[in-house]
Amino acid sequence: MKKRDKTSVLIELKDVFKYYYMGENVVKAVDGISIKVNEGEFVAVMGPSGSGKSTSMNLIGSLDVPTRGHIFLDGEDISTFSESDLAQLRGRKIGFIFQSFNLIPNLTAKENVMLPMTFQGIPLEEREIKAEELLNLVELTDRMDHYPNELSGGQKQRVAIARSLSNDPEVILADEPTGNLDTKTGDIVMHFLDKLHKEGKTIIMITHEPELAEHHAETVYWIRDGKIEKVTRKKKGAKYIDGELKKIVEKRK
Question: Quick check: pTM over 0.70?
């Protein structure tokens, strides 16, 4: 994978709102957030249950469109795209890893990894070769022909990681990737995400675990009540600093 210089903006949410109308009530799931993700960056969206982080994930991943505001992917405003156009864009640009794995139960591990390539019209032989390479990458060569109910939780998540890479997307969007795993297995999954990041992939992780966000991500967006409460950034592998402290540090240089 090609290394990135991390200066080019890949995904940007500009003053985005997502409201749900339930009779006379309005649920402000996302209430005016702005998020910027550079190429090759590891970003975490962090917040407790009900904070709006899942809705934010749907917006970042083009799974939903905003009530108001703009979402840019590779410089294109996708806020007004049709669902069919969004689906094609997602298939090419974004690989998804879900907390509940979302594997198709009647397909083998190999067939699950091949599935996204089918929707992009990739020939069968090429799909098979790529799926085998990816399962080897996540150390599941001996589980290719096993069905999801024959795999452990950690193995299922590693199949999900392989599947997310099948169309060589620019972005890996991981929704609570360790949520259904024990600590040791979760560490293995995060190792794979860190490895992909070091190889140049852009990683966006949705999580409610502060330690996970701060240990792995370079930038953390902290969300509460549909708003961004603060943004913290890691400086050269050291501690995180918030926006105000960053200004002070820069002034002292």
Answer: yes
Q: Is 160 helix (H, G, I), strand (E, B) or coil?
A: helix
In angstroms, the CA 114 to CA 111 distance is 5
**Helices and strands (H, E) in the chain, number of each type:** 8, 11
The tokens of 250 are what? 């820069």
Q: Are 62 and 78 in contact (CB under 8 A)?
A: yes
pLDDT of the residue at 7: 64
| CA pair distance 32, 13, nearest whole angstrom | 9
Q: Which residue has tokens 């962090």? A: 46
Distances (CA, A) of 95 to 32, 34, 45, 214, 249: 26, 22, 17, 22, 36
229 token code pair: 């409460």
Q: What pLDDT does residue 234 have?
A: 83
For the chain, give the mean pLDDT: 88
Exposure pattern of 1-31 as b/e (b: 16+ CB <10 Å)? Answer: eeebeeeeebbbbeebbbeeeeeeeeebbbe
CA distance 117 to 91: 8
Burial class (CB in 10 A: 0-12, 13-18, 19+), 210: middle
Distance (Å, rounded) from C-alpha 7 to C-alpha 167? 24
Name the residue among 25, 31, 70, 66 with its Cα closest to residue 51.
31
N residues, the chain: 253
Mean pLDDT, residues 104-113 taken together: 97
Q: Are strands 25-38 and 68-73 parallel, antiparallel or unpaired?
A: unpaired
Please give the Cα distance from 13 to 178 (Å, whole number). Answer: 25
Q: Which domains does the chain have, with CATH numbers?
A: 42-62+87-252 (3.40.50.300)
